[in-house]
Amino acid sequence: MAASCVALLFLSLFLPLLLLGGWKRWQRGRAARHVVVVVLGDVGRSPRMQYHALSLAKCGFSVTLLGFCNSKPHNELLESDRIQIVKLTEFQSLAVGPRVLRYGIKVVFQAVYLLWKLMWQEPSTYIFLQNPPGLPSISVCWLVGCLCGSKLVIDWHNYGYSIMGLVHGVTHPIVLLAKWYEKLFGRLSHLNLCVTNAMREDLAENWRIRAVTLYDKPASFFKETPLDLQHELFMKLGRTHSLFRACLEPSDPTTERSAFTERDAQTRVVTRLCRRPALLVSSTSWTEDEDFSILLAALEKFEQVASDGDSLPSLVCVITGRGPLKEHYTRLISQKRFQRIQVCTPWLEAEDYPLLLGSADLGVCLHKSSSGLDLPMKVVDMFGCCLPVCAVNFKCLHELVKHGENGLVFEDAEELASQLQMLLSKFPDPAGKLNQFRKNLRESEQLRWDESWQRTVLPLVMDS
């Protein structure tokens, strides 16, 4: 009797899925080329998946992009008539009960919800999935692919279990379960992409997964910002952040002046201020894999040296992003008593972020991969804007940052402080090391995302 009830329950749950899947398989043969891109995270903070959607649309596919919509995606995505964004609802963990139980319940609800959303989308040839987070999305997308005849493509940005290990510890049962899950379901995908050769080799040796390396490349809108647009950006940011405003008002009240630039009232020509501060930019998701205490300690050392002479400029440090540790570091920043350094932590609109990178003098990256196998996309974007970078070193960073050529790598706050002093000495001297790095970036042949995607991914998709 009990077995009959279980069988009846199983049929009542899965028979509708099988019927719907069969109908979608029949529909898919008659439908135009369609791809579903899944991000179990914020679409606006998932640039690589946005680029996948845009590249697929440019190649004639219609695209449905599923993800959380906590921040605005780039305008190019919103304006495409081939891309539809489907908003997913983010489930919060229960407030009571053991952590493992709360997490388990959240995963089950997410799995059922994602399955329901995917099954009601237009039949698709491919499902492109970002990993991490892969729990529960890999298994759900695989199941939908089996039911509907879609091929699963996993884009490995990192390993989900290694990120969980930063919080829980590498031997925690949840972390070990997540690792087993990623290995098991990762092997069931039709195609696999990854972000570094080091990850490709690790997937092959330890996971028995064959992947193709698709390096992150800057999109076309990451480029040096023209001076007039720099001025407009600084004036806009100055409305909400005082460090972008001019310290001294111009003698002519009709002249527009920011902390870095001014526009002549008569000619409307924009020029840089001679005694302007240096603009340092860092972007972050404010998570455990980025230790911003390193930057704060380096800034303290920089301030000590800058106070002893005139060879170093004042410094404006802009740290952009959202994340769980932002409040913690904002509190630490507020406790500093800098005299020559100003720090702000704005959340920028999608269109303003490339403009800021293209206007900055130096970028700093504190991303230290949880697995040691992924690369910081923020550095890719900075290089697209010809912005020299100082980046904290880890296992495969050499695949992106060539020390002494397009930037510098450092191990600790002491080394970063020395690099800041060296790069900003006698700023803005055009003969300085900072401008030499920028010149190297301008002269290097930088492949853009569209070109890289069409060379790497498009042949795989078309051949399949």
From TrEMBL:
One of its GO terms (cellular component) is endoplasmic reticulum membrane. It is found in: Endoplasmic reticulum membrane. It is a single-pass membrane protein. It catalyses: an N,N'-diacetylchitobiosyl-diphospho-di-trans,poly-cis-dolichol + GDP-alpha-D-mannose = a beta-D-Man-(1->4)-beta-D-GlcNAc-(1->4)-alpha-D-GlcNAc-diphospho-di-trans,poly-cis-dolichol + GDP + H(+). Keywords: Endoplasmic reticulum, Glycosyltransferase, Membrane, Phosphoprotein, Signal, Signal-anchor, Transferase, Transmembrane, Transmembrane helix. Pathway: Protein modification; protein glycosylation. It is an enzyme of class 2 (transferase). Its main location: endoplasmic reticulum. GO terms for molecular function: chitobiosyldiphosphodolichol beta-mannosyltransferase activity. Its EC number is 2.4.1.142. It holds the Pfam family Glyco_trans_1_4. It comes from the Eukaryota. Residues 1-21 form the signal peptide. Mannosyltransferase that operates in the biosynthetic pathway of dolichol-linked oligosaccharides, the glycan precursors employed in protein asparagine (N)-glycosylation. The assembly of dolichol-linked oligosaccharides begins on the cytosolic side of the endoplasmic reticulum membrane and finishes in its lumen. The sequential addition of sugars to dolichol pyrophosphate produces dolichol-linked oligosaccharides containing fourteen sugars, including two GlcNAcs, nine mannoses and three glucoses. Belongs to the glycosyltransferase group 1 family. Glycosyltransferase 33 subfamily. This is Chitobiosyldiphosphodolichol beta-mannosyltransferase. The gene is Alg1.
